[in-house]
Specification:
alpha/beta, Carbamate kinase, 9-stranded mixed beta sheet, two-stranded antiparallel sheet, globular
Length: about 230
């Protein structure tokens, strides 16, 4: 069983696929899934995207540096929203970020993060890497290494990594386990290049799994056969 995880989620987890804003049923589903994990005493960090609000790089009329910064602020909005919802559902939560000094957000200090975990808090990392040009995948990889996670779990709408798009090809083959080198050799798109490079460099395991199947996250934390595991060797 994993004792410390970083969970990477897209903003669509909060809104529903292809939707914008916040969907109450989706939020309650997220809360229920997290409660199952926390009951085991697992430390949990979360990186959430902002696709339910806007994607910075969809703003073609803006320069990339500005668009990315708007996207980063979107993750802060989602983090604060989740903090309030979580705490109303009795999940102690702290939001940390380097991009804003709002009253409900604390700066990122490594020693403090360990104290938050020891006190039973969910830690939400907001604002991406705090630099434009990097995705929330890269932020998740960076934060997973910083918090000394056992694994980075990427919650998606597919049940793992395939050799080709399973929505287009009926004969798509799912991998249960891969090494980093095998994933590179096969040209599999797991995370963006920067994120994947960080995980490979620091031997951070990655699990890609279907977050929308009830109980899947708990099974993943129990190290059961869920999704696709990417390992150093």
């Amino acid at each position: 069983m994993y004792k410390r995880i970083l969970l990477k989620l897209s903003g669509e987890v909060l809104s529903g696929e292809g939707e914008k804003g916040f969907n109450h049923e989706n939020i309650i589903y997220l809360v229920d899934e997290l409660k199952k994990i926390l009951e085991y005493g697992t430390n949990m960090g979360i990186v959430i995207g902002a696709g339910n609000l806007f994607r910075g790089r969809e703003m073609q009329e803006l320069s990339p540096t500005i668009a990315d910064q708007i996207g980063m602020l979107g993750t802060v909005i989602n983090a604060l929203y989740l903090k309030d919802i979580f705490e109303k559902n009795h999940l102690r939560t702290v939001v940390v970020s380097q991009v804003t000094s709002l009253p409900s957000i604390r700066p990122i200090h490594y020693d403090d993060i360990n104290l938050y975990f020891d006190a039973g808090y969910v830690v939400i990392f907001a604002g991406g890497t705090s630099n434009p040009f990097f995705t929330t995948d890269t932020a998740a990889a960076l934060r997973a290494v910083e918090m000394k996670a056992d694994i980075l779990i990427k919650g998606t709408k597919v049940d793992g990594i395939y050799d080709k798009d399973p929505k287009k090809y009926n004969d798509a083959k799912k991998f249960n386990m891969l090494t980093f080198d095998e994933a590179i050799e096969k040209g599999l798109k797991i995370m963006d290049t920067e994120a994947f490079s960080i995980c490979k460099r620091y031997d951070m395991k990655i699990l890609v799994m279907d977050f929308f199947k009830k109980g899947n996250l708990l099974s993943a934390v129990r190290e059961e056969n869920v999704g696709t595991l990417v390992v150093p060797k």
